[in-house]
Amino acid sequence: MFKSLLIFIFMVAILFLLGCAEDAKDFPSSAAVEQTSLFVANMATLSVINLEAGTIENNVFGLGNAPNDMTFAGDLLIVVNSLSNDLNFFRVTQGNALLPYGVVKLGQYDNPWAAASDGEGHLLITNMMQNSVSVLSLESREIEQRLPAGVAPEPVIVAGEYAYVGNTAYDFNSYTYQDGSIWKYDLNTWEVVDSLLVGTNPQDIAMDPLGRFHVVCTGDYGNVAGKVYVVEPEALSVVMVIEIGGTPNRVAFAPDSTAYLSAGGWGMLGSPHGVVLRYRSDTGEVLRGWEAPVQVGLGAIDIAVADSGRVFVCCFDDNRIDELHADTVCASFIVGTGPCAILARE
Known about the structure:
single chain, mainly beta, Methylamine Dehydrogenase, Chain H, 5-stranded antiparallel sheet, disordered N terminus
């Protein structure tokens, strides 16, 4: 399960095929990055795209196995590696040099999924296999405590003095999903202060320009189709439910109030192309649903919108990043093997 059970199995198989080939590479002690960059976490290496020049530096540094998420905490770029159970730290200097800044080992069976900074020196990490959230001190690089979560937590987001964690409620014994939920944590006490039931398999939470959460509920990859729950975070209440269909995974917002969803499309399942869905983030109007999706490279696993409004799709199967202009791929960037996550910096 790498953003889905089917993908996760596929990733494990890829890792066995790759072996230690990437580990044997000699990586530099630092790399130059531009102010406007797109960071790409491949299966075992980091790529950087210069968004101004359109140039690519591939396999800049090594990563752990199966990076699932990236986040910034000040000048630190942090990569969450799900299968090797660790974090890669990099620091961006004032002179725009990217420096490796160490590896933090986590629990052997944590399967860390996503991370978010609280802005106060802590990193919150969801542990999908352990039904918990780790609180890491960014200063000491030590886990200060582990918070209880729901079943199989994945996304996490921080807003104000609260953190919100999405629980997919996947039962590894019966291979079924129960009711998905959002848990709200007080960052001052680390206690759960509220919760909300949402749709099946919530895998992403992002805040729209109106300050509302969009909770992407992927569905069960079978009978239950994808939905987006728009949630008011303070009251933790559902504003509306968008029946988007398909298997949406991650969401990003453009300045024109358009929300973009990466929604899979996998070559191993016979799909002819990858899939991106679109809807209005303010009204919930579906613009390109599952019946008429935007076509991109195979395996649309992640999506990002730069501050300039440029939209980028991470296409795992085709080892590339596609840039979208409206409903058309206007550029493609060939990156490392199996790009898994992307993060824009401007």
